[in-house]
Amino acid sequence: MESPIRKEETCDIAIVGGGASGLAAAVTAASSNCDVLVFEKCSALGGSTALAIGSVTAAGTKLQCRAGIHDSPEDLLKDTDNAIGDLISRDNRELKKVLVQEAGDTVDWLANLGASFVGPFSEQPIHRSPRMHNIVPNSRSYISVLRQAATRKGVEIRLGSQVLDLITSEGGVTGVRVNSLSGSRTIKINKAVILATGDYSSNKELRAQFMAKEWAQIEGFNPSCTGDGHLIGMAMGAAIRNMDLCNGPNLRFVSPSQPIWVESLPTFPAFARLMGVVARHAPKYFFRLIAKRFLTVHTAPSTDIFRKGAILINKNGKRFTNELQNASLGIAVAEQPENVAYILFDSALARKFSVPPNYISTAPGIAYAYFHDYRTLRKDIVFIGQTIGQLAEKASISPTALTETVDKYNHFVLVGKDDDFGRENLGQGLHEAPFCILGPVKVYIPVVDGGLDVDCKCRVLNYEGEIIPGLYAAGSVGQGGLILPGHGLHIAWALVSGRIAGRNAKTE
Length: 508
Ligand SMILES: Cc1cc2nc3c(=O)[nH]c(=O)nc-3n(C[C@H](O)[C@H](O)[C@H](O)COP(=O)(O)OP(=O)(O)OC[C@H]3O[C@@H](n4cnc5c(N)ncnc54)[C@H](O)[C@@H]3O)c2cc1C
Prior knowledge:
17 helices; binds flavin-adenine dinucleotide; globular
């Protein structure tokens, strides 16, 4: 529940943003002689953290130890270095060392606060050891565990409160200006401000400024990722790094109209612990069943289905691109009517993608979802027809246009040449009834990697490498040039950096 607005508008530390990084900072900073205020612009805490799959990658955790896995921060560093390849020259090496060093202890810290994890799981080919820990029952548990810990330590949380900018004097940060339903007000800050505002994946202007222009039209996955902290930091003279890098764009099936039951499970610690015990001791197939629920809703479809012969069509029943050109696929989808597309294939492919090794989507090392899983779990996005015309009607696409498209494509397969888009690997053609559509798919940018430059204490730096007094950044906004490959390192950084920022801000 939102706390009432206090009369005395002053606090020691203001934290801007109530996702994993902001709340980890709040729990770490708050004490009897350091009062902490968290401002969250949305009506609920959570940010991208609450929307995530929930994997956190770390080495040297108690869970690894219990599973007999010998791992070390040094090995984690080597594996992530290999995974980023040439991008290593753009990576923030000092921060990376801090991340790998502190991730394990941070997972244990969260477990001590009441979080329950399953795993560790393997993530091949990136990691040599199983390191991916998954919070249960879902990613909202990060928020609920941290929120409870913050409340116990007297942190005040103000929802619906957007920080607009910072007040400075003699070069340092001395206050924040906040907008809420009750109007705009200034809060004086005694020690520091920690920016924990997430990324800027939904800020089209910033994306247009730093990334390819065509990407500006693609939606961010989380609409609240508007890069507020990036803008606030830049206005203070903060240096920014790697603003052109992002994860995606990804094709994703549109979400079901109702949240899936796993997402609706309560996240209070006692229940989470029970879920942890159930997940650890239940037969593996039971855990996979739950994971498949997530996969069919939250993960990107593998583009392998195109390499094996599927085509992509728009709402008008037309092909519009070379389906094998991964780099431009997202932009092509974003340009279609209603920004959506549909994956079309025949029964031969449906059979192929119903058994290993051909999956529709995966959380590597945890589970795979096949076509039959989508038929069972995502009836809202699976259409099947005995003829192309019948299929088109079921998916509300023009039957004439779709029949023409499939006939034309089959002709291209026959002559071995795609006259429309120059696709080279055309597959076997779409001949065997019944025919299937999976969709709509939309294209999203789930995560962008650019952030304010920070030092190893998460203090924000300017272009001269000097600290901006009183200003910290954690999580995505304080990514500082870190390159985070694979699954689980973004949440690891959010938690690790939140703790570091909180620890140091309170000593200001
Ligand atoms: C679909 C999806 C799945 C993902 N899965 C994983 C995964 O499994 N593992 C992993 O490591 N990473 C994953 N990620 C990435 C990961 O979730 C994020 O990188 C991480 O949670 C970011 O944490 P954060 O605290 O920096 O930001 P957030 O969790 O986004 O929190 C930022 C908060 O700040 C608030 N805010 C913003 N501006 C203001 C303002 N001006 N005033 C007040 N409040 C403000 C926002 O509303 C938000 O609540 C996933 C991302 C997506 C989109």
